[in-house]
Design a protein that fits this description.
Layout: H1 2-89, H2 91-104, H3 109-116, H4 120-130
Helix pairs in contact: 2-4, 3-4
């Protein structure tokens, strides 16, 4: 019975040893997988940061372009106002504006000559150009 006990203990020790070796190999495989995942995560983080920087650059560019567009719109509005103001102050332009309105309302050559003090040839030309 003593030999059987020793044999049983020896078998148990050998089984435990084999199990420890198998567990060690499994741990090594798991460790290599964890290392691979860690590398992938680091690369993913690096790429995410690169995309984040590019997105920030695009935002900054878009904001700058938006400001530039607003500035151009403001300048265009100011120029339009100045042009309108200049046309209102030019008596000749007022005269032609009035003459065009009269032509649209059906005024004749003599009426344009009298009311707008236009030469007869200009009155005839306005009528020919703007009547439908």
């Amino acid at each position: 019975m003593g030999d059987e006990l020793i044999t049983g203990a020896l078998v148990l020790v050998i089984v435990c040893f084999v199990l420890m070796i198998l567990m060690y190999k499994q741990m090594q495989k798991l460790k290599s997988k964890v290392d691979a995942v860690t590398v992938l995560l680091k690369e993913s983080d690096r790429q995410r940061e690169a995309v984040k920087r590019e997105l920030q650059e695009l935002r900054s560019g878009t904001i700058g372009m938006g400001r530039r567009v607003v500035e151009i719109e403001n300048n265009l509005t100011k120029q339009s106002e100045k042009l309108e103001e200049a046309s209102q102050q030019d008596p000749q332009a007022k005269l032609y504006s009035r003459a065009l309105k009269m032509v649209e309302l059906g005024a004749g050559v003599e009426e344009l000559v009298t009311e707008c003090e236009l030469p007869k040839a200009e009155a005839e030309l306005l009528i020919r150009l703007h009547r439908k």
